[in-house]
Amino acid sequence: MADGGDEVTAARIAEAWRRERPGTPTGSIEVVTPVWWLAKLFSDDRARALRAAGIDAATLDLLSVLRRSGRPYALTTRELARRTLVTAGAISQRLARAERDGLVEREPGDPAEQGRRSVLVRLTPAGHDLVERSVDVVLGREALLVDGLAPAERETLVALLDKLLTDVRQRLADTQEPEEC
């Protein structure tokens, strides 16, 4: 990333804001900006890896949740929505696509489950094969991208990111406006 021959860094961005607008809160720039840049780089690279594997991110997410659930690789739609952090409507769309492609199948779930009609989603052999191939491609590629960190550096980064994520989630939850009834 270059700007007029100088490398653009988060430190330079923060410095420029402090110079141009003294008093502007710049303390987050050197944390948030690299996180955004990394997210963009990881996202773009993952999209390329997914294309090469012949799967989209939403389908990989769905199939991965089922695969990680263990045998018999089946979950209710409610549990899928909870584990993928998407709405019931988004799960329905993902399931329709995956079912059409022969990657999952739906069947009636346990009628006693929370007193509601439930649907069980099961990974098909084709879905299992696709997720196995795709996960190796994506996670292998991501392992290469973070290989520049020593194991101890990774442990430190994992702990710091977990701490930051937990704190940001709590701060955002504390500042959310209550929904109107």
Characterize the structure shown.
The chain is mainly alpha-helical. It contains seven helices and five strands; from the N terminus they run ββαααβααββαα. The strands form two sheets. A three-stranded antiparallel β-sheet has the order 3-5-4. Strands 1-2 form a two-stranded antiparallel sheet. Strand 1 (2-3) and strand 2 form a beta hairpin. Helix 4 (77-84) crosses helix 5 (88-100). The longest helix is centred in the first third of the chain and has 25 residues, at 29-53. The termini are far apart.
Can you summarize this structure?
The chain is mainly alpha-helical and 181 residues long. It has helices spanning 10-20, 29-53, 57-68, 77-84, 88-100, 125-145, 151-175; strands at 2-3, 6-7, 74-76, 104-108, 119-123.
Which descriptors apply to this entry?
mainly alpha, 181 residues, 2 domains, disordered N terminus, Arc Repressor Mutant, subunit A
Architecture blueprint of SSEs:
Elements: E1 2-3, E2 6-7, H1 10-20, H2 29-53, H3 57-68, E3 74-76, H4 77-84, H5 88-100, E4 104-108, E5 119-123, H6 125-145, H7 151-175
The end-to-end distance, rounded to whole angstroms, is: 48 Å
Low-pLDDT regions: 1-5
Structural class: mainly alpha
The CATH topology annotation of the largest domain reads as Arc Repressor Mutant, subunit A
Query: Mind telling me the CATH superfamily name of the largest domain?
Result: Winged helix-like DNA-binding domain superfamily/Winged helix DNA-binding domain
CATH architecture of the largest domain: Orthogonal Bundle
- Name the shape in a single word: globular
Rg, Å, rounded: 21 Å
- As laid out across the biggest beta sheet, the strand order is 3-5-4
How would a crystallographer describe the biggest sheet?
Answer: 3 strands, antiparallel
Question: Helical stretch count?
Answer: 7
